[in-house]
Design brief:
The chain is built from 3 helices and 4 strands. By secondary structure, it is of the alpha+beta class. It has one domain: Winged helix-like DNA-binding domain superfamily/Winged helix DNA-binding domain (Arc Repressor Mutant, subunit A, Orthogonal Bundle), CATH 1.10.10.10. The protein starts with a strand and ends in a 5-residue tail after the last strand.
């Protein structure tokens, strides 16, 4: 059902969520942090998931909620610059 917070082998924290839960968590994080944006590596670290799964989920948000989310060239707080997931506030 929801997430499972615990320790993975090696003592690293892990967070496992279903795809709809991950979409909701990612959307909530992007909205909450707006106007700040994060690169894929920083988002993956914040959500404690693999980067490819994060990118797939971001693509679902852009396609499914294009009034709220777009990919745009931005710079992360860590200095990385790329096409990043941005909240447009159009639906707010």
């Amino acid at each position: 059902m929801g997430g499972d917070l615990g320790a993975a082998p090696g003592g690293r924290a892990r967070y496992q969520v279903t795809t709809p839960d991950l979409r909701r968590h990612l959307a909530d994080l992007i909205k909450t942090e707006h106007p700040f944006v994060y690169c894929w590596s920083c988002l993956a670290a914040k959500l404690r998931i693999e980067e490819p799964k994060l990118r797939d989920t971001a693509q679902m948000l852009v396609v499914g909620q294009r009034q709220d989310f777009v990919l745009a060239r931005r710079e992360c707080a860590c200095g990385a610059s790329d096409q990043l997931l941005v909240y447009t506030k159009a639906g707010a």
